[in-house]
Write a structure and sequence with these properties.
CATH class: Mainly Alpha
Structural class: mainly alpha
Number of domains: 1
Number of helices: 8
Strand content: under 5%
CATH topology: Arp2/3 complex 21 kDa subunit ARPC3
CATH architecture: Orthogonal Bundle
Shape: globular
Largest sheet: none
Radius of gyration: 17 Å
Helix content: 55-70%
Order of helices and strands: HHHHHHHH
Length: 198
């Protein structure tokens, strides 16, 4: 196994040295990450003011652990699965599947996941995933992007007044909780990785 430089992502800590094994490792991580995103979309935790899923937590944690390239590839794989009609999103298949679902009210948020993964992954590649404060700052920027893109899409569908009221307010508290958990989890995993490497 190869060790990482200061700016490497957590996932690269355990990347095999030979090229063939490295690509197999990346494919496995992407599939595992997309599966975790699916599971996170299906889990609903009772919370105020609305029940929360764990999707943003999963997006942030995966991007922080994987880095920009693998993190965005993993989120893109998840979105591609949804576009192909697999019931990977919250409310699927009950509320529709495929591109029809993605063009609905959650479309902007789904695009936001991809952009947020790039932002958080970029920060992780520069070593920010070792610090809860720095990582939390990157995740906060990612969260703002998700909300802004979500509201813009909702405004286009339903008008600006409804978009702001329904697109931001109910999610602020729950998303900040998930952000904080992810910002603490990944640096903790770095500590575990250092111990494993001896």
């Amino acid at each position: 196994m190869s060790t990482t430089a200061t700016g490497s992502s957590l996932a690269r800590t355990f990347v095999p040295q030979d090229a063939a094994s490295r690509w197999v490792w990346y494919v496995i991580l992407a599939v595992v990450g997309a599966t975790l995103l699916t599971l996170s979309a299906k889990i609903k935790v009772p919370f105020w003011p609305v029940p929360m899923t764990l999707q943003t937590f999963a997006v942030f944690a995966i991007a922080a652990a994987y880095g920009m390239r693998l993190g965005t590839t993993t989120v893109a794989l998840y979105l591609a699965q949804g576009a192909a009609g697999l019931p990977v999103f919250t409310g699927t298949p009950e509320k529709g599947i495929g591109l029809a679902y993605m063009m609905g009210p959650t479309g902007g948020y789904l695009v936001g996941f991809l952009v947020a993964a790039a932002i958080v992954g970029w920060a992780a590649d520069r070593g920010w995933s070792r610090s809860p404060v720095k990582l939390g700052g990157a995740m906060l920027i990612g969260e703002l992007v998700i909300l802004i893109l979500g509201v813009i899409w909702l405004a286009w569908l339903f008008g600006a007044d409804k978009a702001i009221g329904f697109g931001i307010g109910p999610f602020i508290v729950t998303d900040l909780v998930k952000l904080a958990l992810a910002a603490v989890l990944v640096p903790a995993l770095w500590s575990v990785a250092r111990r494993l490497r001896g």
